[in-house]
Amino acid sequence: MKCSILILDDDIELSENMKELLEDSGFEVMATDNIDEALNLIEDFSPSVLLVDYLMPDLDGISFLSRIREKNKWIRIILMTAFPSVELAVDAIKKGANDFIAKPFKKDELITKINKSLEELKFISNSCNESDIDEILNCLSNKIRRDILQLLFKKDEMRFMEIVRSLNMSDHTKLNFHLKILIKNKLIIHKNQIYKITKKGINALQCIKRLI
After folding, report:
1. Same domain (yes/no): 101, 191
2. What is the DSSP track for 87-134?
3. Residues near 23 by Cβ (< 8 Å), separated by ≥ 6?
4. What is the CATH number of the domain that holds 68?
5. Domain match, 60 and 32 both
6. Local structure of residue 168 (DSSP, 8 states)
7. What is the pLDDT of residues 16-48, one digit of tens each?
8. What is the C-alpha to C-alpha distance for residues 95 and 98, in angstroms, rounded to an integer?
9. Same domain, 92 and 161
């Protein structure tokens, strides 16, 4: 499977070895040790996967993640580090990384991570078009709306007061406001006093899980 991969690492020897390894596995690969060049490559070529080192001169990989997302919201980011920890992994995911790999890694481990990222990207593109994803991200940026959608996904259908009790919300006006936004975005429907998640709502949940 041909797919564009960008490697950003100041260890030039490692980058070249990775580039050769991935090209031998059938991928199209670009590599750079320069942050500004990486941003330009992301903007110009829209690679599917970015392999980025955690520690770069003058800028750590975590801080760099938000700048990457400004250029490309859909690129799958795999953070590489020789200093793995649970705290770092959690922080990386929160800041925009999609996966995490500890150095040194084996060829099979790296290929597995990349293929997983490509499968996620394929799933997202098949489930939601770009305009849908923008709407979904905007609508589900609110935690209450995400909680409502997850609740209806689990319960299939619910009445208003059942949702109130499940979410432990005393402000009925606030809940009704969020329900109306979900209905407007066609993520749920309301009929005969019953709320149900739609197919688009199910896809939205799946897309959000893949993107986060």
Report:
1. no
2. HHHHHHHHHT-SEEEESS--HHHHHHHHHHHHHHHHHHHHH--HHHHH
3. 29
4. 3.40.50.2300
5. yes
6. T
7. 999 999 999 999 999 999 988 999 999 888 899
8. 9
9. no
